[in-house]
């Protein structure tokens, strides 16, 4: 077993132990953080590994959340088919958006993804009859049962979040160490060179975006199912910025970075809002400090200082 | 003469009315070392950029290994056995030397990690960078980065290797080593060499094609080209051919 695998399995063990060790408040937070970290890991495939700076990933998160939620609300689907509907919605949307947006690059790509995402947000508001627009809708506890397990119970919810997080973490770890993942990195570093080594870079970028969008959708679907609510704010622009921040803070292009960044940011806001109403000021200052002194993010800094081979 | 591995017919490219390459018919037989020379702005880089598919021609056809590749994207041409090294060094600077070459080998060898490692070790040994495999490419000197480019070309095992000014910016000692390397390579692949350094061209090339104002001015052995009055005129700019 490689050192990298041991490290990541160790992290999963620590998170699992959290289920019995953490006090109730932090236990609830951690479940939420793991689900949001799934979203961040999805974002990291596109941004961190392939260099596709999207400003519209909230549409994929929301596609998962609404694909799942509407399947329950309108079609009375069970939790499992509803989750799968959410995943399919994310995969389909990212394929369509990718085919169009990947004809651009750089700043244009940022703007195009932002616009697509805004269109999705407005569509959720426009079809308020089904989506209940801004208000959103609650997913009843009775609908949140998977294989006979009640996901509204905090312990079950933590385990479900942990299982999804573990699956995505190990999937990412495997992907980035395989040839396909190496090509993503090559494209991030020098796309023209990768193309002239014989790689179909459009296809590779499209696969990266679809994998990224589908994982983001899994995060969104799980968030709705585990916490019982779907709302338009999750499709808003701030939910496109969050994963970018989390990934930058934690370390873009590292497997553990998204979790570290999500955890750090979540508690930064949580703790500073305990001191002052102007908690965003504290958060902002800490962010500036981190960009100045650890521009590669937390895991990026670990990679630079301690272990060059950190995947 | 055996069937050419690469040929162009009427190949042309205009940029906003400026004819950079005009109606070039070009044949390259297999296993030859062909040099492509010409004064600055003669259209050499435009010509090879069309061969590899970085820019589309405005007219004419390109055939590689008997098949028309004019409409194929660059990556598909590389997959058929062309390789190209950039005039301005273009490596994956933040990745390790090993990974740079592995990326070149992997497209051909796929997920077979052992075969990829073997190909990388072999390619790096041939250019003399065997002991630098774990360094980041950006930590190499300029000359070594150029050698890394060649190693990436080698790892692709191409049937046609296009080298765009490979000796640019190299020291004399590095150029000597480069010449040895190209002579070895010539035994296993066809080489199209764009080069400014006349000593390198005269020593390595089997034949030379001279481009001037986007057209083929002359073609022949190094001795023939050396003696050609038109070529001398083009380089000296005296119009001496008529004198």
Largest sheet geometry of chain A: 2 strands, antiparallel
Per DSSP, what share of the residues of chain A sits in E-state strands of 2 or more residues?
under 5%
Number of helices of chain A: 13
Main sheet specs of chain B: 6 strands, mixed
Q: How many H/I helices of chain B?
A: 9
Our estimate of the beta-strand percent of chain B is: 15-25%
DSSP, total strands of chain B: 10
SSE run of chain B:
EEEHEEHEHHHEHEHEEHH
Structural class of chain B: alpha/beta
What's the mean pLDDT score of chain B?
89
Radius of gyration of chain B: 18 Å
Radius of gyration of chain A: 19 Å
Choose one word for the global shape of chain B.
globular
- How far apart, in Å, are the first and last alpha carbons of chain A? 15 Å
Overall form of chain A = globular
Low-confidence stretches of chain B: 239-243
How many distinct folded domains of chain A?
Answer: 1
Protein name (chain A): Branched-chain amino acid ABC transporter permease
Transmembrane segments (chain A): 33-52, 81-102, 109-128, 158-176, 206-232, 244-266, 278-298
Pfam families (chain A): BPD_transp_2
GO cellular component, one term (chain A): plasma membrane
Q: Features of this protein?
A:
heterodimer; A: 311 residues; mainly alpha; two-stranded antiparallel sheet; 13 helices; 4 strands; B: 243 residues; alpha/beta; 6-stranded mixed sheet; 4-stranded antiparallel sheet; 10 strands; globular; disordered C terminus
State the gist of this model.
The complex is a heterodimer of chains A (311) and B (243). Chain A is 76% helix and 3% strand.
Can you tell me about this structure?
The complex is a heterodimer of chains A (311) and B (243). Chain A has 311 residues and is mostly helical. Chain A has one domain. Chain A has 13 helices and four strands. In chain A, helix 2 crosses helix 11 (257-275). In chain A, the strands form two sheets. Chain A has a two-stranded antiparallel ribbon. Chain A starts with a helix and ends in a 6-residue tail after the last helix. Chain B is α/β, with parallel strands linked by helices. Chain B has a domain at 92-157. In chain B, strands 6-7-8-3-9-10 form a six-stranded mixed beta sheet, sandwiched between helices. A four-stranded antiparallel beta sheet of chain B has the order 2-1-4-5, with helices on one face. Mean pLDDT of chain B is 89; it is low at 239-243. The A-B interface holds A 178-179, 182-183, 185-186, 189-190, 192-201 and B 52, 54, 73-76, 78-79, 84, 86, 90-95, 99, 102-104, 106-108, 110-111, 152, 156. Chain B: It comes from Pseudooceanicola pacificus. Chain B: One of its GO terms (molecular function) is ATP binding. Chain B: Residues 6-238 form the ABC transporter domain.
């Amino acid at each position: 077993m490689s050192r990298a695998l041991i490290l990541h399995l160790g992290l999963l063990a620590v998170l699992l132990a959290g289920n019995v060790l953490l006090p109730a408040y932090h236990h609830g937070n951690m479940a939420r953080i793991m689900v949001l970290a799934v979203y961040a890991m999805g974002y990291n495939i596109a941004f961190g590994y392939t260099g596709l700076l999207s400003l519209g990933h909230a549409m994929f998160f929301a596609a998962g959340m609404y694909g799942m939620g509407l399947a329950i609300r309108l079609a009375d689907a069970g939790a499992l088919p509803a989750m799968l509907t959410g995943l399919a919605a994310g995969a389909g949307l990212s394929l369509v958006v990718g085919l169009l947006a990947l004809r651009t690059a750089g700043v244009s790509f940022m703007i195009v993804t932002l616009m697509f995402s805004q269109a999705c947000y407005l569509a959720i508001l426009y079809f308020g009859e089904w989506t209940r627009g801004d208000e959103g809708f609650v997913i009843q506890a009775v609908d949140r049962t998977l294989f006979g397990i009640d996901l509204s119970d905090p312990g079950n919810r933590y385990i479900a979040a942990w299982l999804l997080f573990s699956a995505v973490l190990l999937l990412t770890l495997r992907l980035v160490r395989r040839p396909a993942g190496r090509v993503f990195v090559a494209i991030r570093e020098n796309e023209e060179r990768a193309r002239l080594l014989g790689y179909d870079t459009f296809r590779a970028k499209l696969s990266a975006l679809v994998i990224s969008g589908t994982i983001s959708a899994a995060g969104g679907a799980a968030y709705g199912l585990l916490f019982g609510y779907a709302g338009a704010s999750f499709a808003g622009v701030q939910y496109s910025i969050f994963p970018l921040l989390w990934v930058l803070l934690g370390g873009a292009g590292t497997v553990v970075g998204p979790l570290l960044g999500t955890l750090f940011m979540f508690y930064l806001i949580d703790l500073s809002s305990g001191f002052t109403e102007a908690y965003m000021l504290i958060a902002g200052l800490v962010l500036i400090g981190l960009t100045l002194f650890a521009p590669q993010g937390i895991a990026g800094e670990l990679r630079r200082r301690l272990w060059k081979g950190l995947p | 003469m055996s069937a050419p591995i690469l040929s162009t017919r009427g190949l042309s490219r205009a940029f906003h009315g400026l004819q950079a390459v005009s109606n070039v018919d070009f044949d390259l037989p297999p296993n030859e070392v062909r040099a492509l020379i010409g004064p600055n702005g003669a259209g050499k880089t435009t010509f090879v950029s069309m061969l590899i598919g970085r820019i589309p021609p405005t007219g004419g056809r390109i055939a590689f290994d008997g098949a028309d590749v004019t409409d194929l994207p660059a990556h598909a041409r590389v997959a058929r056995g062309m390789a190209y090294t950039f005039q301005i060094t273009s490596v994956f600077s933040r990745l390790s030397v090993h990974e740079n070459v592995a990326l070149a080998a992997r497209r051909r060898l796929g997920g077979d990690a052992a075969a990829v490692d073997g190909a990388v070790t072999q390619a790096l040994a041939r250019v003399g960078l065997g002991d630098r495999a774990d360094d980041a490419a950006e930590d190499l000197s300029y000359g070594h980065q150029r050698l890394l480019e060649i190693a990436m070309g080698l790892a692709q095992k191409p049937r046609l290797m296009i080298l765009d000014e490979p000796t640019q910016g190299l020291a004399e000692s590095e150029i000597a080593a480069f010449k040895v390397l190209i002579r070895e390579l010539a035994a296993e692949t066809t080489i199209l060499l764009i080069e400014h350094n006349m000593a390198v061209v005269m020593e390595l090339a089997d034949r030379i094609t001279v481009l001037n104002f986007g057209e083929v001015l002359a073609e022949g052995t190094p001795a023939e080209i050396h003696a050609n009055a038109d070529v001398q005129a083009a380089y000296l700019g005296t119009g001496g051919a008529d004198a």
